[in-house]
Amino acid sequence: MKYYVTISLLSTLLIIITPLLSNAQTDMDAIMMEKKQLCIGPMYSHSSWKNYWEGTLKRDNQNLGTISTAAFALMGAYGITGKLNVLFNAPYIKTTASAGTLHGMQGFQDLSLYLKWMLVEKQLGPGTFSLYTIGGVSFPLTNYVADFLPLSIGLHSKTASVRLMLDYQVSNIFATGSATYVLRDNIKIDRTSYYDTQLHLSNEVSMPNVSNLNFRAGYRSTKLIAEAVVNKWTTLGGFDITRNNMPFPSNKMNATTIGANFKYVITANHNLLLVGGGNSTVAGRNAGQATTFYGSVFYVFDFTHKTKSVNQPVKTN
Questions:
Q1: Which pLDDT does position 269 carry in this prediction?
Q2: Per-10-residue mean pLDDT, the chain, length 317
């Protein structure tokens, strides 16, 4: 049986303040929950940045100081079958600025739902090859303000995404690569006109779609998973922040992050898991140079009514 929760905040940087938690889920890893198993738990993360890229110009802003984001989320994955899982994530986010007069914001952000399907799992050479497809949607849980970057808690855009993921494991060493395309719906802001590269006499903002590339590799066993992760988030359109201006929801926001994640099984029956990690933004455009740390405890509920605990090995030869 196979399961593993890795909360990867490397996955997306939709807004300048912090990687969004919609992609902080097991849609990024190559492990499945077994049928009628539910893995669920709370997560806390903290992200902060002082320097940011205004277009391609790296700078700071003394009127803002350091922007910090705390996120509290309930996350989980359920096995419909051993090859089809549903995943969810509902975060509560709070932002603050250490300087200036702009106040932070807080509230529930977006509910994210994913279906993860293992299409192929077969022996290939000395290892095991797997192919997955993941589809997801997200939508705002509250009527939060999107047009207050960098202190908004989100972009208030409904999204739909599709991901293709490849995984190869030899003994306890693995590598996973994935590519995602995200469609974003238009949003409405609280003003009757705005200017991006031209004047718009409307409160509706056209949001550019995005792409995401993710690569992770490391050690994976029944007790411990440790991985290094590289993630590249690219906005397919948009425009740069103008000099000394506030960010705008439809800006081009690109980010490349590197980091590490781990999972440790605490109990002998494999039901209690400790998850943690962190990442740093190494390149960006209209994005903060953020450093993020997170931690979580997850518990696996087995609804198969088995009379004894079942060992849950990861994919091996």
A1: 86
A2: 36 35 56 93 96 95 94 95 95 96 95 96 96 97 96 97 97 97 97 94 97 97 94 96 92 97 91 95 96 95 66 44
Q: Report residue 240 as tokens.
A: 């740069």
Q: Are 297 and 7 in contact (CB under 8 A)?
A: no
Q: Cα 23 to chain center, whole Å?
A: 3
Contact yes or no for 4/29 (Cβ under 8 A) = yes
Rounded Cα gap, residues 56 and 68, in angstroms? 22
pLDDT at 317: 41
Whether omega for the bond prior to residue 150 falls within 30 degrees of 0, making it cis, is yes
For 64, the token pair is 């803002």
Beta pairing partners, 118: 132
**CA gap 98, 65 in Å, rounded:** 5
3-state helix, strand, coil in the chain (%, to 5): 0, 55, 40
Residue 209 Cα to chain centre, angstroms: 16
88 contact partners, CB below 8 Å, separation of at least 6: 75, 76, 77, 111, 112, 113, 114
pLDDT in the model for residue 304: 86
* Burial group, residue 28, by CB count within 10 angstroms (0-12, 13-18, 19+): buried
Q: Please provide the DSSP assignment of 127-189 as one string.
A: EEEEEEEEEEEEEESS---SSSTTS-S-----EEEEEEEEEEEETTEEEEEEEEEEEE--EE-
pLDDT of 306: 61
CA nearest neighbour of 24 among 2, 38, 43: 43
Q: Given CA atoms 113, 168, 39, 231 in this order, what sign does their dihedral have?
A: negative
Give the single-character DSSP code of 61. -
Q: Are 249 and 241 in contact (CB under 8 A)?
A: no
